[in-house]
Design a protein that fits this description.
The chain is of the alpha/beta class. It has a domain of 172 residues: Carbamate kinase (3-Layer(aba) Sandwich), CATH 3.40.1160. The protein has 11 helices and 20 strands. The strands form 5 sheets. An 8-stranded mixed beta sheet has the order 3-6-2-1-9-11-12-10, with helices on both faces. Strands 13-18-20-19 form a 4-stranded antiparallel beta sheet, with helices on both faces. The structure holds aspartic acid (ASP) and magnesium ion.
Length: 405
């Protein structure tokens, strides 16, 4: 007998037929003699619909009331899942986040979990019940309903797995697991049997997000090993954990492309202490998320600063920069939206050299120009022309033999 936490995302419980399928799957796991905690999301699209309704009645809805509203999405699915289980003879009980003992801080719409009192859940498990918990929500010390930020059901599942000391945590979604590249773009992409937390986090921040980032960080911190797999088939998924066995030759684990980036160039600013500080202070104050930064060598007292921001932030960035340029005397801002960021990720890079050279040579052989470069211990990212991004992903994928096991 094992204690298992399963999480089913929005598409897995998208309609009543899907909910019945999920109930069959839960029953099968329970019938093998396991104790089971199940976390469910709202049906896919419901959270967005609720948000749209909130905005239709009020331009700036109160965050407390938003949480009150959004939490209902998951409440619908926990009740229906429990009923579907009753319908096939499985003893099950549904709980809201608060009822499941998930206590958060006070920050509405993006609360952090502070503690989980798992005793009531454990009691139910030991009494033979399947416990169904609403993802994405908790309760604060004042008894108010809070939510954990978009995609927060993943966090609920990981945190509960830690709290009930689960033997296994399974995150069911609509993809088979984590791939070496986007299979829609790179047809030789392979599903990874295993990936480390750090690689998963770097891939997510590079544009191939399978799960909420905070939940992966939480799993890393509390050593929760979990598996990402599909609820639409029985294929094994990808196991996410700290240490992943590396075959000698495997240096790069995966390739990610982010097409939602824009490149901003601030040119002809004075090359003196404080210019960069002012530029990036103003962007930070405007909540613009800056990613890669390159400053060229100053000539004749002027320099250029180039950086990338999410495309949704470009207008905000340009607006924030106007007063700064006036203050530091001169400079122009240009924006290029036809760019993409390509990243190769792998913990093997820590101990292998030549990864950058291999990548750059492969791109050069394909005649693809590199506009910006940045590296971390386990990642190399480049900015390139949007039109060449898919081709570059294929080139990088085969340059690192990711199509071969
Ligand atoms: N229903 C919430 C959302 O759409 C939480 C989740 O699905 O994980 O963001
Ligand atoms: Mg979701």
């Amino acid at each position: 007998m094992a204690r298992i936490v399963q999480k089913y995302g929005g598409t897995s419980v998208g309609d009543v037929e899907r909910i019945k399928k999920v109930a069959e799957r839960i029953k099968a796991t329970r019938d093998e003699g396991n104790q089971l905690v199940v976390v469910v999301s709202a049906r896919s699209g419901v959270t967005n619909e609720l948000l749209a309704r909130a905005r239709a009645v009020c331009e700036f809805p109160s965050e407390r009331e938003l949480d009150m509203l959004l939490a209902t999405g998951e409440q619908e699915t926990i009740a229906l899942t429990a009923m579907a289980l009753h319908g096939i003879g499985v003893d099950a009980v549904s709980y809201t986040g608060g009822q499941a003992g998930i206590f958060t801080d006070k920050v509405h719409t993006k609360a952090k979990i502070k503690t989980i009192d798992a005793k009531p859940i454990v009691r139910d498990l030991e009494a033979g019940k399947v416990v169904i918990v609403a993802g994405f929500q908790g309760i604060n010390e004042e008894g108010q309903i809070t939510t954990l930020g978009r995609g927060g059901s993943d966090l609920t599942a990981i945190a509960l797995a830690a709290a009930v000391k689960a033997d296994k945590c399974e995150i069911y979604t609509d993809v088979d697991g984590v791939y070496t590249a986007d299979p829609r773009v790179v047809k030789d992409a392979r599903k990874l049997a295993e990936i480390s937390y750090d690689e998963m986090l770097e891939l997510a921040s590079s544009g191939s997000k399978v799960m909420q980032t905070r939940s992966v960080e939480f799993a890393k911190k509390y050593h929760v090993v979990f598996e990402v797999r599909s609820s639409f088939n029985h294929n094994p998924g990808t196991i996410v954990k700290e240490e992943v066995a590396y075959m000698e030759k495997v240096v790069v684990r995966g390739v990610a492309v982010d097409k939602d980036q824009a490149k901003v160039i601030v040119s002809n600013i004075r090359d003196k202490p404080g210019s960069a500080a002012k530029v990036f202070r103003s962007l930070a104050d405007a909540n613009v998320n800056v990613d890669m930064i390159v400053q060229n060598v100053g000539r004749q007292g002027v320099a250029n600063l180039t950086f990338t921001v999410p495309q949704t932030d470009t207008a905000k960035a340009v607006r924030a920069l106007e007063p700064v340029l006036a203050a530091i005397g001169g400079g122009q801002v240009t924006v290029h939206e036809q760019v993409a960021k390509l990243s190769v990720v792998g913990v093997g890079m820590k101990t292998h050299s030549g990864v950058a050279a291999t990548l750059f040579q492969a791109l050069a052989d394909a005649g693809i120009n590199i506009e910006m470069i940045s590296t971390s211990e386990i990642k190399i990212s480049i900015v390139l022309d949007l039109d060449r991004a898919d081709e570059a992903a294929r080139v990088a994928h085969s340059a690192f033999d990711l199509d071969k096991v």
